Amino acid sequence: MKNKKIVFLSLLLLFGSLQPIFADAEDQESIELNAKIEIEKVSRNIINALRYGRFVLADTEWKKIQSDVYKTFAEYDYLNGSLLYSRMEWQEAKESLNRTLKKEPNHEAASFLLGMIYAQEDSWSEAKETWIETNQISPYNPFYHYNLGLAYFILKDYPNAITSLNKSLEYKANYNEAKLILAKTYLELNQVDKAKIELSSILEQDPKHIQASHLMGRVIYLMDKDPKKSLTYLKNPRALGWREKKVYARCYFEMRMWREAENLLRPIAYSPFADEYDQSFYLNLLLNLGFDERANDFFHFIQKQSQNESKIAEAYRMLLSSREGKDLLYHYFKLRY
Predict the structure, then answer these.
(1) Euclidean distance between the first and final Cα of the chain, in Å?
(2) Which residues contact residue 309 at a Cβ distance below 8 angstroms, ignoring those fewer than 6 apart?
(3) Does the predicted TM-score (pTM) go above 0.90?
(4) How far is Cα 91 from Cα 28, in angstroms, rounded to an integer?
(5) What pLDDT shows up at residue 308?
(6) What CA–CA distance (Å, rounded) separates 326 from 291?
C-alpha cells in the first residue's frame, strides 16, 4: 500500500513537471498561429496599397510585422522584396525574393516579381528563365504567359514568343496586349496577314488603341502600298516605335509631305543602326527641302562613322527594344518613382 502511494505521488510530481512544457509548446503554437494570421492580413494590405500607389500606407503596414516571430515566414521576405521593388532598389529586392524562394520554392508571386526585376535591369535572358519557372508553378495565369512571351519577343525567339502569347490568349481570350505583341512578332516574321488579323481584332474592340492603330498603318502600307490610307492610322507621331517611324516617313515622302517625313526620320538617320537606305533616304529629304547645308553636314557625319559600329548598333537596338518591352510589361503593382 505504501509503495502504491509512492508511485502515485511520483506520477503526480511528473505530471506537474510536464505541465509547464506542454503549456510552453501550446503557447508557442498559439504565437506562431497568430503571427501567421497577422502576416497574411498585413500582406493583403501592403500589396493592395502598392497596387494603388499608396506607398505611405504600405510602409505603415510593414512596420506592424517587425518582431522576430514574423521574420521566419517566406511572406515576410516577399513583402520586403515587394517594397524594395517599388523603390527600384533592385539588388536588395532580388536578395529578399531569393530568400523567399529558398524558404518556399513554389512562391509564384516572388518568382514573378524576381523576373520583373531582371527585366527592369535589361537582363531579359534571366527574366525569361525566371518566368519559365513561374509558369511551371502556376501554368494557368495569362499574365505570366504574357510576360514570358514578351521576353521571348525582346530576345528575338519568335516561335516561343508565339507559343507563350497564344497560351496567354487561351486563358484570357480578349487580352489585347498579348494580341499586340503577337502582331509585332508576326511582322518580324513577315507574316503580315496574321498580324493584320490580330490588329483588326484589337481595333474592333478598342478603335482608339493607339499602338494597334500605328501598327495597322504599317501593315496597310506593306500590303497595299497605300500611303494615304496608312496615314489615317497615325494618331500620335511621338508614340511611334522606330520601325513605324521608318514606314510613316516613307508614307509622308510619297505624299510629298517632306517636312513631316524629315521630322520622323531624323532620329533614325542619326542613330547607330541606320542602314544605307535610311541614310540615303534622309539625304534625299534634306535636298528636297532645300536644306543643302544640313545635307552636307549629314554627309560628313556618315563619313566619320566608325567602321565597328555594327556592335554599337546592335546594342542600341537592344536597348530600344528593352525600353519598349518595359513599357509593355504586365506590372503586378506600381513603382514609386
Answers:
(1) 82
(2) 272
(3) no
(4) 35
(5) 46
(6) 37
Q: What is the pLDDT of residue 91?
A: 95
Spatial contact of 91 and 307, defined as CB atoms under 8 Å apart: no
pLDDT in tens, 115-146: 999 999 999 999 999 999 999 999 999 999 99
Quick one: which of 188, 187, 231 has its CA closest to 213?
231
Return residue ranges of the chain for CATH 1.25.40.10: 34-138, 140-235
How far is 168 from 143, CA to CA, in rounded Å?
A: 7
CATH superfamily of 34-138: Tetratricopeptide repeat domain (1.25.40.10)
Name the residue with cell 497568430: 34
N residues, the chain: 337
DSSP label at residue 289 = T
Q: Are 39 and 63 in contact (CB under 8 A)?
A: no
Furthest-apart CA atoms within the chain: distance in Å: 125
Alpha carbons 323 and 337: distance in angstroms, whole number = 16
Helix, strand, coil abundance in the chain, percent, nearest 5: 80, 0, 20
Orientation angle between helical segments 74-86 and 90-103, nearest 10 degrees: 160
**154, burial (CB in 10 Å: exposed 0-12, middle 13-18, buried 19+):** buried
